Amino acid sequence: MVYESPLGPLTLVEAEEGPLVVAFAERTQATEWPDVLRRRLSTLHIQAGRCPRSTGWLDAYFAGSKRAIPYPEHLSRYLEVTAAEEVVWRSLLTIPFGATASYRGVGARTGLHPRAVGRLTGANPIAILIPCHRIVGANGRLVGYGGGLDRKRQLLDHEIRFGDELLRSEEWEPHDIDKTMTAPDLS
After folding, report:
1. Is the Cβ–Cβ distance between 101 and 181 less than 8 Å?
2. What 3 state SS string does 16-40 have?
3. 82-171 fold
4. Quick check: 18 and 77 in contact, CB under 8 A?
5. Residues with Cβ < 8 Å from 101, sequence gap 6 or more?
6. What integer pLDDT is reported at residue 164 of this predicted model?
């Protein structure tokens, strides 16, 4: 399904449990989502539809809701998700609406190298809802966003506009990260 967002069209793919993909349409034009999903579940029945959970979350976000989605536990059932990806994506969900964190900061909190954090953040299939746009360079500069830096700036501006106050990176505490999760060995 294509969702018309204020930032342009987004490709949505959803399971009964919730979102699987939220991606800027130009990044996914060549992706055959049925083929990708059937790599994990060969008998998966796929049908076109409205993607009500994803559209509901996106509608709320663009209306100014600060409520984060819970980590999509179902994601690894449909897509190949590594332990490192999961720990980084869970960490992203703990960054509050209107706040930013650096790759280095996420790396320190997850035990991963900042470059690994960048690569794993870039693999996030659920843009905006798993807020990879809240990650900035160590000096606070906008760097590396799959939807482009203009969209990253627009998303952060949106959060500033609807947020109570902008939080600096240093104020972010990863209070919701599952303490039993540790960084996987990437060697």
Report:
1. no
2. CCEEEEEEEHHHHCCCCHHHHHHCC
3. Arc Repressor Mutant, subunit A (1.10.10)
4. no
5. 95, 134, 135, 136, 169, 172
6. 66
Residue 51 annotated as catalytic:
no
Start-to-end CA distance of the chain, whole Å, equals 38
pLDDT value for 36: 77
Cβ neighbours, 10 Å, residue 67: 9
Instruction: Give dist(CA 27, CA 69) in Å, integer.
Output: 23
- At 42, which amino acid appears? S
Helix (H, G, I), strand (E, B) or coil at 102: strand
Q: Which of 161, 168, 135, 167 is nearest to 149 (CA)?
A: 135
Radius of gyration of the chain (CA): 16
C-alpha 14/C-alpha 87 separation (Å) is 22
Catalytic residue among 92, 117, 128, 132: 132
Enter the pTM of the model: 0.83
The per-residue DSSP string of 61-90 comes to HHTT--PPPPP-TTHHHHS---HHHHHHHH
pLDDT at 34: 72
pLDDT along the chain (187 residues), means of 10: 94 90 80 76 77 94 92 92 96 93 94 95 94 92 90 94 62 42 44
